[in-house]
Amino acid sequence: MRQIAVILAGGTGSRAGGGEPKQFRLLRDGKTVLETCVAAFAGHVDAICVVTHPDYAERTRRLLNDNSILVVNGGRERWESSWNAIRALGDCEADVLIHDCARPFVSARTIDEVCRALETHEAVTVAVPVTDTLYQVLPGNANCQLPIVNSVPERAAYMRAQTPQAFRLSLIRRAYEKALEDPNGIFATDDCGIVKRYLPAQEIVIVQGEEANRKLTYKEDFDS
Question: Which CATH superfamily is domain 3-130+159-223 in?
Fold first, then answer.
């Protein structure tokens, strides 16, 4: 099965500061976040697709300087960017690994284990155990405007999601087609959320992630 990495780099990075979209921010080795992320997948998949903001499409092409990399315009929401990539990949069957560009430190081990899991499963995600105590909260009320602890769930039942999240292309396409028919609109923070909501019987297996596969979100993340 052909394996394609889709790297979502369509954000503007406003929370990261610095006046520059974070995919173009330099890391300590002098490479941009986007270059580092693309390099992580090179040699582990058959093709790479980068989804970027339309205003930065040409800049992305110049930076990567590789005609074999498909550059696709992103949407306003994350799910729209994923859907644009899915449509751009066409109807031929493949395995697609959807990854947040803001996680440039994904390891070869993680990518290879996800690819191996796709040999026997149609939906695979990456996650790490929760180590902090979790609170299920209620919003503040007239007596107290601060959030209120409602319960303390057992953390062993939870994991923190990472990417890549990987699927048989026909499966993730079918999930999105169902989502687009939802009269209530689409709300999902990741692609597994789309699959679980619109293909609820679909099993999604988990590959153990790594703490190093962290997401660069705020200015402080680039300083550490």
Answer: Spore Coat Polysaccharide Biosynthesis Protein SpsA; Chain A (3.90.550.10)
